[in-house]
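Narrative of activities, Objective 1.

The group set out to show that a structural description can be obtained from nothing but a protein's sequence at a throughput compatible with the screening campaign. Below is one input-output pair from the validation batch, recorded exactly as produced.
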Amino acid sequence: MGESAKVTNFGAGNVVDKFNEEGYRCTEDYGFWVYNAGVVQPGVSGCTTDNKPVGTITKRFPQVTGPAAEKPFASHRWWGSVSFLGEMTLQDPDSAAYITPDPIIARISQSGVRVMGIPSGLQSMDEINFQYPIPDPFAEVFDGIAVANSMHFNLEGYLKESSDGSMTIEWQASGNPVMEATFLHGSPYVFFKTYEGDFVIKTLREDGGEKGTFSTGDNSLGLWTRVAGNKNTYLLIGDEGTTFSGATSNSITINSQTNEFTLALLPPSNLDTPTQGTVDEFKLYARNVVSKVDITYQIESESQAVNITHHYLDQSGEPLDTMMGLHPLHWKNAGDIISTQSVRSARGTVKFLPGQDFSYQIPSVGVLPFLPTIDGSIDRAVLTQLVNDFIAQGQDNWNTFTDTYWSGKAYSKVAELAAIARSAGLDQQADVFINWLKLELADWFTAATGDTFDEDKYFVYDEDWDTLLGVSESFLSHQMLNDHHFHYGYFVRAAAEICRVDLAWCSEAQYGPMIELLIRDYAGGRDDEMFPYLRHFDPANGFSWASGMVNFARGNNNESTSEAANAYGAITLYGLITGQQDLVDRGTYLHASTAATYWQYWNNIDHYQGKPEEYNNFPSTYDKITTSIIWGDGAVFSTWFSPRYAHILGIQGLPINPLTLHVGQYPDYMRDYIELGMSESENGKPSGLDEDQWRDVWWNLWATNDAQAALDDYESMADYVPEFGETKAHTYHWIHTFTQLGNMLTGNGDVTADDPASMVFEKDDNRTYLSYNFSEQEKTVNFSDGVSLLVQPGVMTRVTTQELELDDQLPPEFAGDVMVSNVRRTSVDLGWDPATDNVRVASYEIQIQQNGVTVQTVVSTSTSNQVQGLSDNTAYSVIVTALDVAGNRSNSIEAEVTTADLNADLPPQMQGVLAVENITATQATVRWQAAEDEGSINSYNVVLSGPDNFEVVTSVNRLETTLSGLSEQTTYTISISALDDSSQESIAITTEFQTASLIAPLVLLDDQLQDGYSIGNFPGNNEADNDSITLNSGTLEADFSMTGNVYLIAPVVLDLSAYEQGFLRFDLRLASLGSHTDVFVKIDSGWPNLSDVNLSDYGGLPVEGGDFQSYSIPVSDISAASNSLSPGNQVDLTSVINPFVLEGNDGGQDLHIVVESIRIE
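Output recorded for this entry:
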């Protein structure tokens, strides 16, 4: 990349316009494939041993012309292949793309376009799939018709123009326009125009059993085709003087003085020819040439409902009458629709209606930054431990990826943890998460520092494709422009949580412009100079498409509505936080439409609820209540990666957070959805799923329907492996919170609010109202059921109908004083004892006054707060007042504080939280971050305290210590403080932990093999006569001529989970390593579920022919490792069959080992 790269700054961040070639990567899989190189042809000539591409990398260029080439263009549409690939090549299966204006399906080729009607062939293919199965899909014509040109047979196709609901393709020869066609979504019409040659209509046969004509004369011709069981009926309408040559043949020439005609697809009929009434009705508007369809939206302030209008416009932008096609999302939400013509298509019944525009309204689901922590629903000590356990994993392990998708998921889950932690009063832990997110996102948001360019974790702006490309690439996010809304939506969700607590970080001077650059890429506004309007979201269909290339015979596709909802809800959150109403409205529209189409097109909710057959959006022969991947021509009950039901249905719960609550809108449906999703579980519950089938995602989904049942099943498992985007703390908090909230009421329009960050839940006729105020002033939120909430700035307000019915007039009461600590130059820590109230204290108002004038007001839901933004060496008065859920104000408590002088030598400050690891019955390891000080840190005081006034104080000069001599099953408190070179001591950071129970060692081999155990070996390709496995007086000796292993067989399946923090210990003598380079140590729960580590990593290998060497390997190291011979598989400690396995690595030979004293303790 180097000097030729252009760096463009966006606030404190920047992007480049070229890729760093050092970051190019290559993989071999039935060919050699490059990635991290932008929108390029995937194939290269080879890969080096360090995964770098060999040979020329071929860049792709968009297929756009005319107006489409003069502004940013989209390709994630029902017509996306046109702008990405242009024309398809006849009889070439690699040129597979069809466009799906629905009910029309068409293939653009070098000879013109093949046009069919989805309604004529839509069918259930099997129990998981319904579609239009295209016979001979790569032929110029088979079923249906083809439109060709009399003079040109090898044309190139380009996107000429597009709008929200239309697309115009231009065919060229040698760079000159030959003909064009405009397709409209939902419309029966296609408008054609030629610049050279005449239009030729081709059919498979001449008039006969597979083709016929009707309605000849009067500038029009009707024809039908019946091929491979698919009956399509068309009307060709020209201007005055239009005639048709060879009408009964299979090649009809259109003779037109204006060089234009309209193709109309008529509704299918059992009649050989349509009625004259149908012909007249569709012919009436056929030559009103629609040039574009603009789709606008408006948010109703009182209900946050979204009003959407489709406008049909001519070339000059004026409205004109046409036959409009309303899809189920449209007509079901448009009030009374009187339609005389309709068809059954990919999305359900399409109703035709004459007019210039139509409007419909959908409800808003609402968004929240987090769910509240509700006293009585959770054990705060358990939640705190789960949060601390995540921190203890180490920040290097929070995200081990460098690509945009998996990194984004990691950032999003940490953002959820930060919000939960802060809501539970765990501000120190929340700050750890936020500080890590700031560093990670700042890294991504900085492509170049001076003359140094990143190799990964940066963004490139490609002006040819009008897109932002993150490195590293994943899921073809470069080559096919796939899934930007999924990937970048996670980033924006994480950034929004940073902005919520540190708005300055998202300012114009810092990283706000970079966050907005991501939003602009996947959901940009109109007239953006760099990005297309709503890249992934299709305003005509009302949902998003995943692919930018769209090289599929089924059209485009989309799988996870929840990841789309997460992306669009994140825009709303960010807009609310930063005060950008246009982003709030845009996010609300996209989020609401994503939810509405999820229920219409993925879940067929109206049919589930027993409405008439025309409301059934699935074919009548399809028997499932849901599907997973929506295609342009139908849908399939599967995923791109798995046929398992837990994945097929569970993917609509990734991620599960307050931005994806639309999945729980209908509790009755969710009950059956869960039953279907769990149909492959051993017990019909998440606990019965295999380890890789997202138990926690399913507990979370179940909680939106029946939280107590989900909780019962959750508590039945001692341990589980979280889905990558989930954490144990989040799942614990989510399930327990829903036991109090119940089911969601908002989202279907029954109960609405005049604020986008407000929602209502109900349990046993008790409603819970939640509202978050992102502004700096208190505000009133009004719900449609008559409830109004006074919401304080910067906090979430929660109130229930039971609390409101008390008509509380009594204010809270305060006792005690404000406690002041950690006084710095611009900040101070405050704390106080909780106020009491006859109902519930909702929040605390903190006023900071200077000379009697309030200079800052902060609202907190916890009993501590760090006030920032103060001036140095300044006296302040602190006044704290409690407010209850009715808004009653308590007496105030006060304190005086003077901030530190600018030149003062301040005590050090501890950073972050303590991480307690490797907890056993008798010891634990504590780690912490380095303290900050203006001088230097001399040491750290470590105070360990426990029951019966137990206390031990030590001093260390490192950032970790091991605590020994502890008692089993005992709760200890550990506090760490720093001392600087002036002997000033910081405020300590503190945490609690509990030691494990003392478990008796599991002795496998001492002076003899334990009762019931036996020895096994897997000889592989050994020569049995030359192998020797012997056991003599407690000594196990194994001598292999070729590759082999030796193992201990347990008499019963063992549950070793209690030993996870213990050690596998043994003594080993290496008689000969042979041609191996190391020895695998394994624990096996049945192939391929085993884990192994290298013996050399734990003190090195013994000297060949030397003495015994003692080994002590943490069981947790083994269980966390993978199966080297089958990567991705691991041991299940709850079902171990071989607790000890030794094997030479590398497939070598002549390993000779001697082992004694094997035990786990």
